[in-house]
Amino acid sequence: MRSFNFLSGEEPLNPLIPHTAELVVGAIAFTLLFLVLRKAVVPKFEKAFTDRAEAIEGGIERAEKAQLEAQRALVQYNEQLSSAQGEASKLREEARVQGAAILEELRTKAQDEAARITAAAHASIEAERQQAITSLRNEVGALAVELASKIVGEALDDQARQSRIVERFIEDLEKSK
Amino acid sequence: MRAFVKLHAEGDGFVPPSTNDFNLPPITESIAWLTKPVLLVFLSVILVSVFFILSSRKAAVVPSKLQFAGESIYGFVRNDLARDVIGHEFMRFVPYLFTLFTFVLTNNLFGIVPFLQFPAMSHVAFPYVLAIFSFGVFHYVGIQKHGLFKYLKEIAFMPGVPKPVYILLTPIEIATFFLVRPLTLSLRLFANMFAGHLLLLVFIMGGDYMMHDSHLIMKLFSPFSFAFGIALTFFEFMVQCLQAYIFTLLTALYIAGALADEH
Questions:
Q1: Mean pLDDT, range B43-65, rounded to an integer
Q2: Which of residues 1-40 of A touch B (CB under 8 A)?
Q3: Do the Cβ atoms of B98 and A40 come within 8 Å?
Q4: Within chain A, which residues score under 50 in pLDDT?
Q5: Looking at residue A156, what is its pLDDT?
Q6: Structural domain span for residue B161
Q7: Whole-structure pTM over 0.80, yes or no?
Q8: What is the Cα–Cα distance from A147 to A144, expressed in whole angstroms?
Q9: A10 Cα to chain B: minimum distance (Å)
Q10: How many helices (H) and strands (E) does chain B have?
Q11: Which residues lie in coiled coils (chain A) (predicted)?
């Protein structure tokens, strides 16, 4: 700066008066920059902005679609779940009914069997009782006759008479009971 | 200050920076017009072009750091200046406003870039040119939109005003649109850059002068002068950005005014 001190003796320059060369240079430089920026830079940035806006809007759209899809899937799953639950309870109910039926059947069978066995036992007991009665009757008859003949001393060979006497004797026995 | 300098300094005494410090000689004697500001203006064209071409080249949806930096500046001019001020027709003016902002900003910032250290906009010719361009653009837009006659009529006779007021208003309006606007636009930018550079010169040269002074008190005060110079550099950075913004904003406002149905 010191080197310009020689100028300070001169008339100070008016800074408001433009240099012609600088006016021209300024105009050319600015126009040049304007042309470059308008041609090469602005369209690129605009493209980036548009692409970005589209990407964001596309993203939102995709997200909305995905959400819708998810909701639909959820409804479907819920439906499937509830139908599965219904099916399960139905199956359970069926099983319960079937189980009860099986139980009932088994019980009936067992009862039948029991009844059958009881009946068979009764029959066999009855038969044995009859047999016992018959044999007892015969033995008692024989014994009684023998006893009576011994006591009375009377021969009781006649068959008809014998049995009549026995009958009477048994009747008497039953009556005295 | 000058009295103080005269009392204590020896030799030549302190020569404060003057308007002549802005009158830089040609780089080479043979080409008279090739001065430092001219070179700086061309340099700014190259720097701005290269930076924005590189940062916008890929135009990716997910930007790189470089693209993000370029996009931030472009987006600022496009959205905060052009769109918010001009409205739905703003896209036509984005290239112009974008060029204006980056061109002025870069040339202003040259004032504090080491080794360059000269704001090209402190040479009044450049703000004049820009103001003439802006002047041309907003009048052209107004004439294109409304037609020459209607546009001039709306400037001269603002609608919705009682007739006698026109005696006062018409000269003011005409002066505003054709004289005050371009002049203030250019002079505001020029004066800010000029004064800012002068201020930095005062403190840096003053500090330098005091440091080489034989008097001890002067030597002691020299660092304060430098410190203030550095602080002012930060202040200048702010002013340089602000002036670029204001120039672009006002141009956008004038365009918006010319496009509006009523001025």
A1: 92
A2: 1, 4-5, 7-8, 10, 12-23, 25-27, 29-30, 32-34, 36-38, 40
A3: no
A4: 1-10
A5: 56
A6: 2-259
A7: no
A8: 5
A9: 9
A10: 10, 0
A11: 60-94
